[in-house]
Amino acid sequence: MAQIKVGTIFVPYSSLCDHGIFYTRVHLNRLIDRDQFPPAVQLSPNRIAWKLGDLEVWKANRPATRSGKVDPAAPALPRRSAAEAA
User: Fold this and answer.
1) Dihedral of CA 58/59/65/70: which sign?
2) Pairing between strand 47-51 and 10-12?
3) Is 40 helix (H, G, I), strand (E, B) or coil?
4) Alpha-carbon distance 64 to 54, whole Å?
5) pLDDT digits (tens, 9 = 90+) for 50-83
6) Cα–Cα distance, 59 to 43 (Å, whole number)
7) Largest Cα–Cα distance of the chain, in whole Å?
8) What 3-state class would DSSP assign to 62?
9) Is pLDDT at 22 greater than 80 in this prediction?
10) What is the C-alpha separation between 28 and 45, in angstroms, rounded?
11) At 60, which helix (H) or strand (E)?
């Protein structure tokens, strides 16, 4: 098992959108299987999260937008509640 440094910041799936990542769990798993997204770390039997540093490196290596600019500080879209989706 890999050693994790003390002070490592972890980002759970529910907080990925706060970091500009809006993929579903299924799509994330596909990307991870293709080595196109950093793998999650299992924190406990029912809890996984990603290292913030790994996510920042992944975002920095993403292709630019059509305008040629990458905007990592773009505002996150609000998630719809179950009542709004119905």
Assistant:
1) negative
2) antiparallel
3) coil
4) 18
5) 999 999 999 988 876 566 555 554 544 455 555 6
6) 23
7) 44
8) coil
9) yes
10) 19
11) helix 52-60
- Tell me, yes or no, if the pTM score tops 0.70: no
Tokens at residue 50, please? 């990603």
pLDDT at 18 over 70: yes
**Residue pointed to by tokens 């990925």:** 16
Structure-token match 């719809």, residue found: 80
Q: Are 23 and 16 in contact (CB under 8 A)?
A: yes
First to last CA, the chain: 43
Tokens of 18: 């706060």
Q: How many CB atoms lie within 10 A of CB 17?
A: 14
Whose tokens are 């490592």? That residue is: 8
Q: Give the distance from CA 40 to its chain's centroid.
A: 9
